[in-house]
Amino acid sequence: MQIREYIPEDFSCLTKILHQAVHNIPTDIYTYEQQNAWAPDSILKQNLHLTKTWVCLMDDTIAGFIDFIPSKGYINYLYTHPDYQRKGIASLLYQKVETEAIRLQIEKLTVDASKVALPFFLHKGFTLERENIVERKGVKMINFTVGKIIV
Can you give the residue ranges of the N-acetyltransferase domain (predicted)? Predict the structure, then answer.
């Protein structure tokens, strides 16, 4: 596995990973309607070059990515392609962000985690701050704000 910085040529691949990861979630966790509201085909904004974004490569294939907004200490996206899940990719990407945050002397990391991602972040030492009901395209769904003091 190799981590490298995002380049604009990665954009379409990242869009596909996000879409496939969300639409691979069992519908008893997030309904199909919620998945479509959460990850329509055009969810990613083409301003990833304005944030800190890294991709994880496995055999020259992008297997996952993480997007971090240093000014807010906020992890915006962390997705792994369904074919590469449970192989340590998300952990490796998260570690890259935590290392960068420590280097930048960011005191706290925050994430709005899905029901699926919540156990991952709790395992990484985040604590639950609140449950949120968010609305996207008129569809309500639950996520969780979690935080971690790192400095």
Answer: 1-146
* Euclidean distance between the first and the last CA atom of the chain, given in angstroms as a whole number: 27
pLDDT of residue 39: 76
CA angle, 83 as apex, 78 and 85 as ends, to 5°?
Answer: 45
Give the residue ranges of the chain where pLDDT is below 70: 40-47, 49
Q: What is the value of pTM for the model shown?
A: 0.90
Cα separation of 65 and 34, whole Å? 22
pLDDT value of residue 44: 67
CATH of the domain at 67: 3.40.630.30
**Spatial CA neighbour of 27 closest among 18, 38, 12, 16:** 38
- Say if CB 106 and CB 150 are below 8 A apart: yes
How many whole angstroms separate alpha carbon 120 and alpha carbon 80?
13
Range of the domain at 131: 2-149
10 Å CB burial of residue 80 (0-12, 13-18, 19+) is buried
Instruction: Report the domain count for the chain.
Output: 1
- In this prediction, what percent of the chain has a pLDDT beyond 90? 77
